[in-house]
Amino acid sequence: MSAEPPPASAAAEELTADLAPATQPTPSKKQLKKSARKAERAAQRQQQPIQQQPPPPGAEDPFAANYGDVPVEDTQSKAVTGLSWTEVRDLDAAAAAAARSVLVRGFAQEIRSLGRMAFVVLREGRSSVQCVLAAGAGAGVSAQMVAFAKSLTRESVVDVEGVVSFPKELLVGTTQQARIVEIQVRKIYCISRAIPTLPFNLEDAARSEAEFLKPGGQQFPRVGQDTRLNYRAFEIRTPTNQAVLRISTQVQRKSENFCGQKTLMRYIPQNFSVEQAKLHKQMAIVGGCRRVFEVGPVFRAETSRTHRHLCEFTGLDVEMEIKEHYFEVCDVVDGLFVSIFKHLAEKCKEELETINSQYPFEPLKYLEQTLRLTYEEGMQMLKEAGTEIEPMGDLNTEAEKKLGRLVKEKYGTDFFILHRYPSAVRPFYTMPCYDNPAYSNSFDVFLRGEEIISGAQRIHTPGMLAKRAEERGIEASTMSAYMESFSFGAPLHGGFGAGLERVVMLLCGLDSIRMVSMFPRDAHRLSP
Amino acid sequence: MSAEPPPASAAAEELTADLAPATQPTPSKKQLKKSARKAERAAQRQQQPIQQQPPPPGAEDPFAANYGDVPVEDTQSKAVTGLSWTEVRDLDAAAAAAARSVLVRGFAQEIRSLGRMAFVVLREGRSSVQCVLAAGAGAGVSAQMVAFAKSLTRESVVDVEGVVSFPKELLVGTTQQARIVEIQVRKIYCISRAIPTLPFNLEDAARSEAEFLKPGGQQFPRVGQDTRLNYRAFEIRTPTNQAVLRISTQVQRKSENFCGQKTLMRYIPQNFSVEQAKLHKQMAIVGGCRRVFEVGPVFRAETSRTHRHLCEFTGLDVEMEIKEHYFEVCDVVDGLFVSIFKHLAEKCKEELETINSQYPFEPLKYLEQTLRLTYEEGMQMLKEAGTEIEPMGDLNTEAEKKLGRLVKEKYGTDFFILHRYPSAVRPFYTMPCYDNPAYSNSFDVFLRGEEIISGAQRIHTPGMLAKRAEERGIEASTMSAYMESFSFGAPLHGGFGAGLERVVMLLCGLDSIRMVSMFPRDAHRLSP
User: Fold this and answer.
1) Do A316 and A184 belong together in one domain?
2) Which of A132, A259, A340, B1 has the fewest beta carbons closer than 10 A?
3) Does one domain contain both B172 and B259?
4) How confident is the model over A449-458, as pLDDT tens digits?
5) Do A492 and B191 touch (CB under 8 A)?
6) Are residues A212 and A156 part of one domain?
7) Same domain, yes or no: B267 and B183
8) Do A324 and B78 touch (CB under 8 A)?
9) Global pTM value
10) CB-nearest partner of B198 from A81, A194, A488
11) Domain encompassing residue B251
12) Could you tell me which residues belong to the region Disordered (chains A, B) (predicted)?
């Protein structure tokens, strides 16, 4: 293989010398690069069949084939072996009782050494299991094999073949402890060796505030948000990140399934920008598509750096014919979100608990039939509580939060719809109210005191649309195809848009949207 | 209402004077704009309660409240009336036998006049029904009401209240004729009046080649692709367009459901470009996400204008851990596409027939277990058939088509996988074959002789990756976060990407990808 590194004779021990203490401060990027290069060279030398490594002095190892770094060529789709891997989450008491032989693959989350024994905690997804190697006759485990296990670096990808068993003592820090099983290792191979000095320790990135506040807790290093995001592909291995990503997936899937079941025709999207996408969706309705929706990336040149804005987010956008009232759109919002809340409570209980244990949050309160208040009613509530709002203006973040608290006190819900917004704060294509054009057939939706959705009936008559555009100083010629389309016979219609990262952030009670996006982008961050 | 047009006294007849003959050539944009403005003004004058219109000379109409143009304010979410609309597709013989009263809304596809009678064909989605008005005592239909119906413009949005009945004669040109029902109109209101001179007639846009070839068929105007795309929001009302969009939706939903069921974690996407998305997906695998997928818009600066390229398309991208072989990725492709084929055959029979009747195509042939040929085997087949290919090059479109024909003859399938492509024609991150680095662990997938998917095992070792990048002259520093991520312990992985518009185009046997995208974009088209 031309891509193969030349043979060399580095011992596994060479790597361990580089191992950083668990609590050292986060290394600089330069230090990291240097040690990465060093480790890379060492790893290249290592990625040879273990047989070629010199045995420890004075010992020929009859079990040499049962461990080692897997040579690169064996990772290049050499054969379909028919070997069967078991998922870590499927290791249970039944497997232990039957002393089942299994083959598992995972990240080496922890490597512990105890005399002639080694312990490797393997993690797969959000599950982990302790793998035990005890050197001694009978078990097929040699001292060299134990030494190899001890030489593994944290977060390396490792294959373990062994027998599921009940451990002698209760294990700490593995998810399979409830089922109280471990693996007695017979074979162990390293598929991909991690550099010894990782950007930070995953335990540190997974610690709750409560742990920091415990006696001795202040000694733990804190991993800052920028460091986390700089190494996002590494950071997302923590349980909370995995849980948040899974919840995001579930919210997205539930949205798609709900919309699909409501016979919303799927829109094949063109998302130059939020606004462009909205116009295209309206044109799809003019085109007779009746109900369209889209879940996909949206780009917005967002200059403000806040806890809840991103330049790129996952938009859920719905546009639909209505027969007579924008409440038909509110009904879809209502049904969709109540079904999402129920789905998560049912299907993502564990994930919510995982997040809650690192970042505690209040359980979500909502009503079966979502509360609808008019903007004026909302203003009145704020006024009575001492907050005066510019009557034809918009709510600022602080007023939103306060209104959220007032509504929760009075109605017992974290989720409500505020409708009949002043026309002045809505886009030109928003249909004004029939009885007062200073108000509009529009609504915002709030979750835990923050806005997550904007929606409205849209103007479908070309005359009114042109007039409204002109009043706002919008040059109709820049959107002539859009304006013209309404002259071909246009159904009454309305729609709404939500940013799913913000929805997930609030559902999980997180305080930053950057914890929800896989690779967040804002005015200050364009990588990784 | 400030947005209301001033009252005026135009009669409905004024509009009909503008009605273009059905077969006139497509008007110019300028003409269209002029007539649009004229119609707009007329429509504004019209959008007044019909009661305010002067009755025809010599006749007070006791039924004046039963028809007319709906005033704008009545379309502004004035009330939730509790009225219940029936779907056109639900009108059936049982409804006719029970003489059921219904309220339907649709586009006025056709307006016919016969003495004291008027016929309005209402279309909703891909269903349509004939609505009959016969002036005479007893039925509550006045001569003025019939005149109003005759004055409707094609493609206006119209509400009809009436009684479902069996027609006296067999109807032609409505989908509900199989169920042989029509509606005896009691009330008729125009919700949104279309301009009298539409960009083209939808029947012309819906005609098959066979119709043009029939005696007299050459008199029909042909609607060219550019005209269609200029008025895309109008053109997509044709049955074939509606069918294609519905099939697109189904392909997308089936892809998402299949991937979701296979426990592929959903990826929250950042799609700057095809390549960037691929790198991010690999990083998600490094981050322990195991299997990720995404269905969403992809942008590519595509300069070639071909029948199968767009600058924006809907990408289906999958990235997944593999245990040992890229065939595990092929297995997902195999399962996904066979399930899509079956789903469409079962759920979209009508839609496929609709498309087939305008643009005839061969039924798709596929095997339960998808055929896998090596690139070398494919080259050998071509060679034996007289086509010599540069052995380490790529297939051009012509060779692809020929290979598709040869495979279909020999194996009886339109769908197959070609694997072990030359490394030289694949991206730098493609894993080379273990036994010959000139070939790679990669594959393309073909449907009806055209490539729809590229996939491969990816390089997971940082050393090999850096070396390959260097060989290709790629500056590693431009993607340092990506390169670095593989040093944190990287699972073996592979993935694939498909463009769904191209998939749908080939499934439906269409000859242009522009018929599949809602608003196609290429180097020559940026609007609508």
Assistant:
1) no
2) B1
3) no
4) 999 999 999 9
5) yes
6) no
7) no
8) yes
9) 0.87
10) A488
11) 239-515
12) 1-69
